[in-house]
Amino acid sequence: MLAYRHAFHAGNHADVLKHLVLTQVLRYMVGKDKPFRYIDTHAGAGGYLLKGAQAQKTAEYREGINQLWSRPDLPPALADFVQLVQTFNLQPDENGVTPQLEKGMTPPLALYPGSPSIARLLMPRGSAMRLFELHPSDARTLAAHFGGERQVQVLNEDGFAGLKGQLPPTPRRAVTLMDPSYELVADYGKVIASMREAVARFAEGVYMVWYPQVSRVEAAQLPKRLMALAPKGWLHVRMTVSQPDERGFGLTGSGMFIINPPYTLHQTLAAELPFLVDALAQFDGASYLIEEQPA
Ligand SMILES: C[S@@+](CC[C@H](N)C(=O)[O-])C[C@H]1O[C@@H](n2cnc3c(N)ncnc32)[C@H](O)[C@@H]1O
């Protein structure tokens, strides 16, 4: 039985880091002008109401996307990401067409896009997507978001097990996001097993793995274990924004591990992370790390 629902956490600091990286990776891939497949092994519901009961319960977005929403001084990649979220907040007109975001206009922050919606905003219409989501009601909501799009498959299945069946793709270009909840400690081992198989089948794919910074040895070890799977190059970015609570618990930050990253990613993140850490810091020791082994 799955208890985790991403609606409680949508737009928090971890989503901001993850979706900043996702945006940059997809922009690079789209810029190459060759079709590719987007695979999301843990896709969530696709979009979240920030004024809804679940998001309001913990209101994590207030320490995340809300801190960037109306800032006029965002560096370019963060400005690009926030503008995507602003576009998602524009309601489609009676013909289903989303209006253009006018320069200088900031809509109220009411909605937060999940990773599949960010991919959809960035990729050309008709791009192939494979979206795994195990929770039945989130899978239904996700399917409603993408209803009728022929190239998009919403799979109410286990994304760890399902990834290998998508690889190698045709044509041989794909970006995969693996973003589990780590609700079960077994998820750490499943990430490694699933990634090992994915890289063995399709070594040239781009793979992004999100992980939480929590006091668990499995979380601390995950980046090192992923490094061992990525012979062709990797990038690891981690952002710490808060301290553990008095019992030593809490999500103090998060990381993204990217196998076969775009060569531009390191430089972009190095330019953006100082601003982001400063904007989202909840204590004086907030920090970030970027390390890379180029191809
Ligand atoms: C962190 S959320 C995903 C958020 C989403 N990727 C985003 O960025 O908007 C993790 C999701 O994985 C789902 N899930 C849990 N175990 C799964 C599994 N084995 N396969 C696919 N989905 C799973 C959960 O129901 C939850 O919606």
What are the low-pLDDT stretches, counting only 5+ consecutive residues below 50?
none
> Mind telling me which CATH architecture this is?
3-Layer(aba) Sandwich
> Can you list the strand order of the major beta sheet?
5-4-1-6-7-9-8-10
The radius of gyration over CA amounts to 18 Å
Bound molecules: S-adenosylmethionine
Structural class: alpha/beta
CATH class category name: Alpha Beta
In terms of DSSP E residues, the strand content is 15-25%
Instruction: Kindly state the percentage of residues in helix.
Output: 25-40%
In CATH terms, what is the fold-level topology? Rossmann fold
Distance between the termini: 41 Å
Main sheet record: 8 strands, mixed
Average predicted confidence as pLDDT = 94
How many structural units, i.e. domains? Answer: 1
Find the count of extended strands (DSSP E, 2+ residues). 10
Oligomer: single chain
Mind telling me the CATH superfamily name? Vaccinia Virus protein VP39
Describe this structure in words.
The protein is an alpha/beta fold. The protein has a single domain (6-89, 102-293), classed as 3-Layer(aba) Sandwich (Rossmann fold). The chain is 35% helix and 18% strand. It is built from 9 helices and 10 strands. The chain has helices at 13-31, 53-58, 76-88, 115-122, 136-145, 159-162, 186-201, 217-227, 265-280; strands at residues 37-40, 47-49, 111-113, 129-132, 152-155, 174-178, 206-213, 234-240, 253-259, 287-293. The protein has an 8-stranded mixed β-sheet, sandwiched between helices. Helix 5 (136-145) links the parallel strand 4 and strand 5 (152-155). Helix 1 runs antiparallel to helix 9 (265-280). It starts with 12 loop residues before the first helix and ends with a strand. The mean pLDDT is 94.
